[in-house]
Amino acid sequence: MAGTRRKWSVGLWLGGLAVVAVAAYWGWVQAWWDHPDLSAEQRIEHFNEAFADRPRRAVAARLDGGGMAILARSDIADVGASRCIRESECSEELIRTVRRSFGCTYVTVRFYCAYAVRTTDGKAGTAFAQISSNPGARKPLEVEQPSFQGAEEMSCKLGFGCKPAAGAEPGGQARAPARKDAEPSPAPSQDAAACKGIRAEIVGAGETCLDPSDPARRDFRDCNNGFCGPAMVALPKGRGMRGSSAADMARLSKDDPQADSFRTEMPQHEVTIGYQLAVGKFEVTFDEWDSCLADRGCTRRPEDPGNRERGTRPVMHVSWIEVRDEFLPWLNRKLGLSGASAYRLLTEAEWEYAARAGTSTKYAFGDIISTAQANFYGERPPKVGSFAPNGFGLHDMHGSVPEWVQDCYESGYDSAPMDGSAHSPENCSSRVHRGGAWNDVPVFVRSAHRGVGDPKDRNWKGFRVARTLVVR
């Protein structure tokens, strides 16, 4: 009888161990059972899922030419070979104690996948998708939102190398070359025939030969009594398209579920800049605003989030009213300018003409933009001039900080001026800002995209300056 009891005791003990073992490892076993390695067909299925019924409808990608990009479906011409790795981690523990945990009731499975892609403009690259199991979701596996940091981490995991793409830092931020300010204004030409560009009145230099078509002869600074204004670029006169066409809107609608909000960019129309416009080479910086503050022209010190480095980073958290009533009057007093040739904000038409720089694509650099070309989908703006300029010699027209312009906001361009002037009705409750921000996805940093805000709003906003040159 004792032997029988002993057998039962051993049996119960072994059975208990088996139950405990099943409880401890059931989550891992079920995870392997539910989510084995992805087949080639499943990889493509989940890649396609990234573009359907999701807020971003996009993937992060590393372009072979350098830099990270956010690619929408319409940006991708071809998808080639793919590679995935599988990782698992305990998400919900069976027993929780201060010192230890025992067993998993749920295990999260993640697939890190890379896809060889070719973009519609002929560039090769590698797109990344992170696909995870999620309890309670409609689908057993879901594609996560695109992330530059996640894509860089996946590059390492998938054996593409842990160094960022050429010209980029971890997280997709392009490496900042040394900023180049405008050279002092060229010496006045004594021979009118020797000037192959325009002869403009520059403060402190007098009548000066500038050539908007020559990168070596289009930059200048106004200087008076030892004070110099912002670096400026003389733009060529000409015509340019403003807004989005019906074809542009159809493409946006395929890529973005909120594309109806972009209809304020219509109808597309041609704008003529028939006067000699000069535009700030860079956005106005903290240093420049602080000079206004020190001289008592400005009354408030805008803060950079976290009190991080200020200096030659673009000033932010300034309102349209502060720019109009404080900074611009101070700048014009310092340089002795008034009237039609005084410093001012760009009009909305001038801004888009300057941003496009003679192009008709979504960005001045083409229909796809990367972190090697502009500051977007990142953590904060870098120093001004950290990226190559557009064709007119202007930096940071895409991303960085939203730039206030003169215009009063109107929904659509049905009555928009076509001569470069501002839309300025008597009663105006909202002003326009352009260019998008450092933390925006690409669709919001397009040349045609419009932002709107209360003129008293300071959140994240910055600006650049313009003036009309007097030409002899």
From TrEMBL:
<dbReference type="InterPro" id="IPR016187">
    <property type="entry name" value="CTDL_fold"/>
</dbReference>
<keyword id="KW-0472">Membrane</keyword>
<dbReference type="InterPro" id="IPR042095">
    <property type="entry name" value="SUMF_sf"/>
</dbReference>
<protein>
    <recommendedName>
        <fullName>Sulfatase-modifying factor enzyme-like domain-containing protein</fullName>
    </recommendedName>
</protein>
<keyword id="KW-0812">Transmembrane</keyword>
<keyword id="KW-1133">Transmembrane helix</keyword>
<feature type="region of interest" description="Disordered">
    <location>
        <begin position="167"/>
        <end position="191"/>
    </location>
</feature>
<dbReference type="Pfam" id="PF03781">
    <property type="entry name" value="FGE-sulfatase"/>
</dbReference>
<feature type="domain" description="Sulfatase-modifying factor enzyme-like">
    <location>
        <begin position="230"/>
        <end position="467"/>
    </location>
</feature>
<dbReference type="InterPro" id="IPR051043">
    <property type="entry name" value="Sulfatase_Mod_Factor_Kinase"/>
</dbReference>
<feature type="transmembrane region" description="Helical">
    <location>
        <begin position="12"/>
        <end position="33"/>
    </location>
</feature>
<dbReference type="GO" id="GO:0120147">
    <property type="term" value="F:formylglycine-generating oxidase activity"/>
</dbReference>
<dbReference type="InterPro" id="IPR005532">
    <property type="entry name" value="SUMF_dom"/>
</dbReference>
